Amino acid sequence: MRILIVAAGLRGDVAPYTGLGAELRRAGYDVVLATTDTFAPLVRDAGLEFRSLPADPRVRGGVTGKRELMRTAAAFITELGQGFADAMDEGADLLLLSTTTAPLGWHLTEATGTPSLGVYLQPTAPTGDFPPVVTGSRSLGRPANRATGRFALRMADRVYEQAVAKLRHRLLLPAASPSEMRRRQDRANWPILHGFSTTLVPRPSDWRSGMEAVGTWWPHHDPAERLPADLEDFLRAGPRPVLIGFGSMASGDGERLSEIAVRALRRAGLRGILQAGSAGLAAAQPFWAGRLAALGAATDPIPFRSLTAERLADSLDQIEEQQAHRRAAAGAAQHLVTENGAGQALKAIQQLTDG
Asked: Which of 82, 130, 173, 177 could crosslink 168 through cysteines, CB 3.0-4.6 Å?
């Protein structure tokens, strides 16, 4: 059986699927990962077949304003939809669809009859337990959390409108809006596996059936691969350092953030490693930082626009001085190592394909 995983976005949106794909390949499946050309080496290093998708989001970095962001995202998604259809021309027996590609893949499933399921890295379904990922980390109360979750989905549907219309026209399908397709999938209890740890996001009790959190899908890596020599030397040369990274939320701000991080580390008297992030269409939404804070494993997120070396240093001081943060982080780590996200996804896929 040939499984086609389709993912698009930045490195953090793609790399986890190399680990999931490698687990499926070890189980005997023929696994293909379709994504943008930037990540072809990641895919092939995991022993997976690579199929190319267009629409690299990095070239559209630096957009400002909500309207410009919406237009840019819609253009990205429209280009992606046409490339997705091309990738499907080479065939597949099962589609695994990421958060970004699912609203496109549903139409290809309808046109080709190929079964599919969601493999999401973020919780997108409205719930009273927490606000939607795109609005931040502060809970608004259960009714408001659900309401803002539904509003976030409607905004996402607007981004996909043009892409869906063009894709359905190409596939000779009757017109259907993104929101109509979403409701159709919900009524059918379309299965969605979420590749994150339940220690960070326990499965909400108000989610519909068919939606599960199975544990983290760790990116594939070669066990024999070593860290760069200069990094290993640094780790051995003194106390354990702090890792500072800003991911993809800071388009064009690398120089300013580097200066802030270095000043904060010096102010706190700590050694540190700076992790370079990529820049693109991702918004500055501290959902995961908020989940860590809710566990007690981190301080409250600092809003990106008000980030200073002094505020970052104060947070580092709190982490160093308060043992409760370390205990909470250690407890979360112990839970993480007991999970086998890729293995749980494999079992779910086997149940689907065997049925």
From this structure: 173
172: phi > 0 → left, psi -120 to 50 → alpha, else beta; which?
left
99-108 burial, b for 16+ CB within 10 Å, e for fewer? bbbbbbbbbb
pLDDT in tens, 129-146: 998 888 766 788 999 999
* Helix pair angle (287-295, 323-338), 10° resolution: 110
Which domains occur in the chain, in start order?
Answer: 2-220+338-354 (3.40.50.2000), 229-336 (3.40.50.2000)
Q: Which letter does DSSP use for residue 90 in this model?
A: T
CB 185 within 8 A of CB 118: no
Cβ burial 287-299 (10 Å sphere, 16+ → b, else e): bbbbbbbbbbbbb
Tens of pLDDT, residues 172-196: 999 999 999 999 999 999 999 999 9
Q: What is the mean pLDDT of the chain?
A: 87
**CB < 8 Å & 24+ apart, contacts of 110-115:** 110/171, 110/173, 111/171, 111/172, 111/173, 112/88, 114/88, 115/352
| SS3 state at 194 | strand
* Alpha carbon distance 54, 70 (integer Å): 19
Backbone phi and psi for residue 242, each to the nearest 5 degrees, phi listed first = -95, 135
Q: What tokens appear for 37 in the block?
A: 């050309």
Place of tokens 């059986």: 1
Q: Is the pLDDT of residue 253 over 70?
A: no
CA distances from 186 to 65, 116, 191, 225, 322 (A): 32, 14, 9, 43, 44
- pLDDT at position 322 is 80
Bridge-based pairing of strands 94-97 and 2-6 is parallel
**Paired residues of 52 in beta bridges:** 35
